[in-house]
Amino acid sequence: MREHHSESRTWLESALERSGDATARAKVLVGAVRLAWFQGELARSHTLAKESVALYRALSDDAGAAFAHLVLGRTEVSRGNRWRGKTLVGESLASFRQQGNMWGISRALIVLGAAALFENDVDRARATFQKSLSICRDLENAEGIALSLLYLGYATHMLGDEASSSTLLEESLAVFEDLGDSRGVAEVLLEQGRVAHAQGNDTRAPQHCAGRASPSAASSTTNPT
User: Fold this and answer.
1) Considering the domain boundaries, does residue 115 fall inside one?
2) In a shared domain, residues 81 and 38
3) How far from chain centre, in Å, is Cα 95?
4) 111 Ramachandran zone, left/alpha/beta (phi>0; psi -120 to 50)
5) Three-state secondary structure along the chain?
6) What residue numbers bound the domain in which 223 lies?
7) Residue 105 within a domain
8) What is the pLDDT of residue 89?
């Protein structure tokens, strides 16, 4: 996985150096933002996202600007600037709604739900993830379904409903495995371990991880957000 990300970063850095066309550069920047965020380089992700937003605005590309606002907002939330992050994601959500972009709406809702979890507003988070899940099911968007189920599992666990959380996480795990998304699989397994611990079953999660993590780790990975 690390080699894959290193190769991706090398290609993106090279593409950024070569891209003289503003539209092409804006698109490459979004990819670089996502990779930097995925690797935990939040300061770089923030810098690249701001440039992407500025470029899309200069191009009067509303669809591109909405997505750039979304990734910038997500980066701000991850950096702890939740008010600023939520404002940016809210702007993105409003733009996606105006465009009728249901995929964008679902992704913005996922980020807003995650921000609510950070603030321990679990009821609002769960309601937001339920909306994103409904949209993703309508779109038959597997990545969005898996993410929404995972975050719903988090929220439901935080509300103390371990049985429902287990069901949501099992469904999320199955979708991530079908996608070959080893990072998603790992995140679900980690949360399943927390749920098992809360249920007083400290041996179940390690056995579950040992039995299912290896095949997925060998699969190709994606960054679903």
Assistant:
1) no
2) yes
3) 19
4) alpha
5) CHHHHHHHHHHHHHHHHHCCCHHHHHHHHHHHHHHHHHCCCHHHHHHHHHHHHHHHHHCCCHHHHHHHHHHHHHHHHHCCCHHHHHHHHHHHHHHHHHHCCHHHHHHHHHHHHHHHHHCCCHHHHHHHHHHHHHHHHHHCCHHHHHHHHHHHHHHHHHCCCHHHHHHHHHHHHHHHHHHCCHHHHHHHHHHHHHHHHHCCCCCHHHHHHHHHHHHHHCCCCCCCC
6) 120-225
7) no
8) 96
Same domain? 24 vs 94: yes
Q: Residue for token digits 């998603």?
A: 184
Give the contacts of 74 (CB within 8 A, at least 6 positions apart). 37, 85, 89, 111, 225
Q: Does the predicted TM-score (pTM) go above 0.90?
A: no
Residues 149 and 223 occupy one common structural domain: yes
- What's the pLDDT at 215? 30
State the pLDDT at residue 217: 26
| Predicted pLDDT of residue 44 | 86
Domains in the chain: how many in total? 2
Show the tokens assigned to 125.
Answer: 């988070």
For the chain, list residues with pLDDT below 50.
1-5, 206, 209-225
Query: Two tokens at 23?
Result: 């539209």
Q: What is the CATH number of the domain that holds 12?
A: 1.25.40.10
Q: Are residues 90 and 146 in the same domain?
A: no
What spatial distance separates the first Cα and last Cα of the chain, rounded to whole Å?
17
Amino acid 95 reads S
pLDDT digits (tens, 9 = 90+) for 139-172: 999 999 999 999 999 999 999 999 999 999 999 9
145 lies in some domain: yes
